[in-house]
């Protein structure tokens, strides 16, 4: 009798507070919106200097709200992956805390929040090694330009 246990995976849903998200997915999907937010801020300041119009400020506020909403959703799923309540996502307001969330090991197998998330493809894993230096370099360069 051949009894082979196969691992079942749950899909990753970016705009949900249910389910789990692995470390590689979390790091990638939490860094990309922050890079866009930083780019929007840099463009706004470079185009207007310190005389930012109220329309530009309102647009930037909407973008910031959207980015942080997405970041909270992602962080809740990440907390579920290491079997903690989604309320731990409130610490995402601390700058670069997403790097800490991405470094915590996942719970193997099934936990109270569902099955393991689908493993990230190699493209996302490779992109993670490029995104962190890109974000840091863009922050440093923005001070010199």
Q: Report the C-alpha radius of gyration, rounded.
A: 18 Å
- Beginning-to-end CA distance, first to last residue: 69 Å
In total, the number of domains comes to 1
Mean pLDDT: 83
Low-confidence stretches: none
Strand order of the largest sheet: 1-2
**Biggest pleated sheet:** 2 strands, parallel
By secondary-structure content and strand pairing, the structural class works out as mainly alpha
Please indicate the percent range of residues in DSSP E strands (runs of 2 or more).
under 5%
Beta strands, count: 2
What percent of the residues sit in helical stretches (DSSP H or I)? Answer: 55-70%
Can you write the helix and strand succession as a string? EHHHEH
The tally of helices reads 4
- Shape, principal axes of CA atoms: elongated
